[in-house]
From TrEMBL:
Keyword Signal found: yes
Family to which this protein belongs: Belongs to the nucleoside-specific channel-forming outer membrane porin (Tsx) (TC 1.B.10) family.
InterPro entries tied to this protein: Channel_Tsx-like, Channel_Tsx-like_sf
TM region positions: none
UniProt keyword terms in alphabetical order: Signal
Source organism phylogeny: Bacteria, Pseudomonadati, Pseudomonadota, Gammaproteobacteria, Alteromonadales
Any Pfam family the entry gives: Channel_Tsx
Protein name per the record: Ion channel protein Tsx
One cellular-component annotation, GO: cell outer membrane
Signal peptide: 1-23
Amino acid sequence: MINKNCTKLLSLTLLCSITTANAETYWSDNSLSYLKNLQDFEVLTNDDINVFTFEHVSGHNWGDVFFFVDRINGKADNNNPKHKETYSEFSPRLSLSYLTGNDVSFGIIKDVFIAGTYEYSSGTSGDFGFGFDNYLYGIGASWNLFDKGFFNTNLYYANNEKIDNDQQLTVSWGYPMEFGKHHIMFDGYIDWSTSADDHEADFHFNPQLKLDVGNYFGNPKKLEVGIEYSFWRNKFGIAGLDDESTVSFLIKAHL
């Protein structure tokens, strides 16, 4: 019998591969970024966390794809041993407009999608390290809320490896702003997961505010610097253990 998790992963891959015939890429972006916390991470109470990220996002006639890999390194301190983790997500969405051959937009909704996400963590760290493979599947939408930028929502059923299954709402946005030569991007996401028998509901608000430094040198949309704020209520679904509120410095290079 084929392993159920393998079947789910194949289903996610199918979202990207089912439309290879006549597939068209509208836009694509790859980037590398470095994140350095300016405050303690609450669970680890560690003031020296470094995160390196590779990120890919692209839009196609059949839908869109978002993928990233985080490498998280925390130095040992008086409170904790060193922390090392690789965390990644692969999130393809298949457009129902493309799949049906009919425009399914209505009102402020531009398109509706079959959505999936695969979450992976290597998690090797002292008392708090744990690895997992989670599979999320559901429905998504892109919204026409701004005259520029984007606003997306996904509603998932989460098949979790280490905790009871739950539901998750993901909201992501990006809004570019220009003040003369100063180009600023305000983007980020919100994840809200429901509670289950073995964990509490958690809420993660993670915006970034970035300045396009490359624009000052005639090379726009290549190098950004800014800050990221992470507010995470009931991190890891454990009530009372951790409510993360951390500001980090960010530098991002688009390849």
